[in-house]
Structures are given as structure tokens and as C-alpha cells.
Amino acid sequence: MKTTLVKTSEVKPNPDNPRIIRDEKFAKLVESIRSFPSMLHLRPIVVNTDMVVLGGNMRLRACKEAGMKHIPVIVAEDITEAQQREFIIKDNVGFGEWNWDTLANEWEAAQLEEWGMDVPTFSTNEEINLDKFFEKGDEEKAQSFKITLEFTEEDYNSVIDAFKEHSGTKEQIVCKLLGV
């Protein structure tokens, strides 16, 4: 399959696409396209032979918002209607998950947020909710969760005691460690 440059106005949004991006995240996508338009050549919008988007509905909308007159597309030929519907969903499913340790060590949080990521931050002045990291009964995720804390030497014993006790939910243990 080859990438073709077409007029943005020729590409039609897919009214059946179940995925949307709102407000601030959409603004970040528009800015991302403005600041790095050549990325679209590396990840073009996928359309059917009628020029209806199969993959990249929000990128198309962001391209229009960014004022792009031409965009790269790949035309998916020879796929059935059923395969097109399947593609729309599979293109929007996130199978992986972020390795937060690598992200924290290799990128700046502000830069990741600028690029559209939701970067979790914790403050001792707010309630900590780890539900977005753990699903009930998901021990694999629970075992891979890491948190780095800085504390004074005199707080060392209470931190060790909290881990030895290991009583309560993950949220309660983290709150205990942070003194919240």
C-alpha cells in the first residue's frame, strides 16, 4: 500500500467512528500536528475507496483545525465492509500499557503532557486514587507498580513498618507512607 497526498477536503470523516477526543486533548493533537506535520507521513490517515476515514478520524479533524490543505492517506482497497468495520475498532484499541518507570526515567513529564499523555502526578495535598493503575484482582499490575518516595532519615522506620504491616488497600498504604 502506498501513501498518497490528497486535498484535506476530499477526505470524509467517518460518522460511525466510536472514538472522540475532546477539549484540551484535542487542542494538544492540533498543536502536535502543527509542530510535527511530517509525522502524518509516517502514520497516514487510512481511508476506504470512497475516501471515508477508517483510521485517523480525530487526526483528520485536527488537520483541518490546523489549516492543512493536503494530508497523506493510505487507501485500503480490497477489504470488505465487515473488515472496514473491524478496522475502525481495532485501530482505536490500545492493547499495550505504558511502562511508567521507563517514561519517568527517559522523558520529562511536561513534555509528555504537551504531547497529549495523561501523566499521573501525586501530591500530599490531594487524595490519591490508584484505581486508574489497578483493576481489582489484577495482581500482575499490582506487582509491577512502583512508587519512588523521598523521606527523611527519621521517617525511614515508619515507612518500613508500613510495608511490613502491609495492611489495608494500596491506596491506604501509599497514603500512610505519604502521611496523608
Task: Give the gist of this structure.
The chain has 180 residues and is of the alpha+beta class. It has helices at 23-35, 39-42, 57-65, 81-90, 100-106, 109-114, 139-144, 156-165, 170-178, and strands at 3-7, 45-47, 53-55, 70-75. The chain is 41% helix and 9% strand.
SSE order and pairing:
Layout: E1 3-7, H1 23-35, H2 39-42, E2 45-47, E3 53-55, H3 57-65, E4 70-75, H4 81-90, H5 100-106, H6 109-114, H7 139-144, H8 156-165, H9 170-178
Helix pairs in contact: 1-3
Structural class: alpha+beta
Head-to-tail CA distance between termini: 55 Å
Strand order of the largest sheet: 1-4-2-3
Helical amount: 40-55%
Which regions are unreliable across 5 or more consecutive residues at pLDDT < 50? none
Largest sheet: 4 strands, mixed
What fraction of the residues are assigned to beta strands by DSSP?
5-15%
Compute the gyration radius: what is it? 22 Å
Instruction: Name the overall outline.
Output: elongated
3D architecture notes:
The chain has helices at 23-35, 39-42, 57-65, 81-90, 100-106, 109-114, 139-144, 156-165, 170-178, and strands at residues 3-7, 45-47, 53-55, 70-75. The chain is of the alpha+beta class. Strands 1-4-2-3 form a 4-stranded mixed sheet. β2 (45-47) and β3 (53-55) form a beta hairpin. α1 (23-35) packs across α3. It is elongated and about 65 Å long. It starts with a strand and ends with a helix.
Q: Notable features of this structure?
A:
elongated; 180 residues; alpha+beta; 9 helices; four-stranded mixed beta sheet; single chain; 4 strands
